[in-house]
Amino acid sequence: MNEFVKIVEVGPRDGLQNEKILLTLNDRKNLVLDLMKTGLQHIEVGSCVSAKWVPQMANSDELFAQLPQSPDIQFSLLTPNIKGFESALAVGCKEVAVFTAASESFTRKNINCSIDESFEKFADVMAAAKANDVKVRGYVSCIVDCPYEGAIDSQQVAYVTKRLFDMGCYEVSLGETIGTATPDRVKKVWDACLAELDPQILAGHFHNTYGMAIANIYQSLQQGIRVFDASIAGLGGCPYAKGASGNVSTEDLYYLLSRMGFETGLHLDALMQASRNISQVLNRQNPSNYANAYWQSRCA
Ligand code: HMG
Ligand code: MG
């Protein structure tokens, strides 16, 4: 049996949060319904954050409530504080994600507090999550470069990552937020983290601004990482990281993993249909090389 790699689909959240077009709740729901047909087992459907800060994610709790639940698919919502957690809990969400960064300046721009203060807010979320049997995933942004501070020390990344585990996260996703990293620098980050933590509980989250996401994922695979975040049709970016483009596309990640002999559980045709549908809704060119080659070969 081939080794399994877990893919966390973040397109409905990380993707749409940075798209200029504000989608209706119905369009966001249709995206998730399409993704549910692809074999994806983990889908981040939105964020319970301030709609003044990120209007694209408004009413994510309502979106969650409208989705059909499936025993095979774990939905999650981003919750930066107890207010967000309570919104997620009220609609029956069983997995949330807290997010901080290895950079003080980014944390301030993103969630309006210091790294230490972010952990104070997460302590409330953790306690409430434990009491309500909700799983908590963690994110660390700016693992290589910060748009405000430049290069980030890998030891600082390892420190913040470990702190999230010590607090109770079951998995921590390391975010290469602005997509400037190359594999040599990614290796240093994993080296620092793996000195203290098992690879099974870590995830890679690579943005593709400079086209390096697949190379960085290949490097991560060499170091034993087996969980990756991805966005259908390479959607999005981060509203607090100017110029940063979307995540690695789920389609390109699928191609890399399946060609390398990993199992992903994804169904190719449904994945391609989901990617085509959202690209049409947003009226945008799909940056995924694999998706474009797939559709070209079907037309030939
Ligand atoms: P704040 O202004 O410091 O919060 O914002 P506050 O507690 O002072 O409250 C101010 C107002 O926000 C109040 O409303 C609160 O009720 C409301 P008002 O009285 O003015 O009408 N509020 C909320 N509303 C909805 N949901 C909440 C919530 N909390 C307070 N949870 C806050 C703090 C975190 C809310 C704000 O900074 C925020 O919403 N930031 C958005 C952060 C965000 O979504 N960033 C993008 C996701 S992270 C990311 O993309 C990186 C990642 O992909 C990894 C990577 O690539 O690196 C994960
Ligand atoms: Mg991101």
TrEMBL record:
Domain Pyruvate carboxyltransferase positions: 5-272
EC number: 4.1.3.4
Key words of the record: Lyase, Metal-binding
Pathway: Metabolic intermediate metabolism; (S)-3-hydroxy-3-methylglutaryl-CoA degradation; acetoacetate from (S)-3-hydroxy-3-methylglutaryl-CoA: step 1/1
GO biological process: ketone body biosynthetic process; L-leucine catabolic process
Entry-linked InterPro entries: Aldolase_TIM, HMGL, PYR_CT
UniProt-listed Pfam families: HMGL-like (PF00682)
Domain of life (superkingdom): Bacteria
GO molecular function: hydroxymethylglutaryl-CoA lyase activity; metal ion binding
Record family assignment: Belongs to the HMG-CoA lyase family.
Name listed for the protein in its UniProt record: hydroxymethylglutaryl-CoA lyase
Species annotation: Acinetobacter pragensis
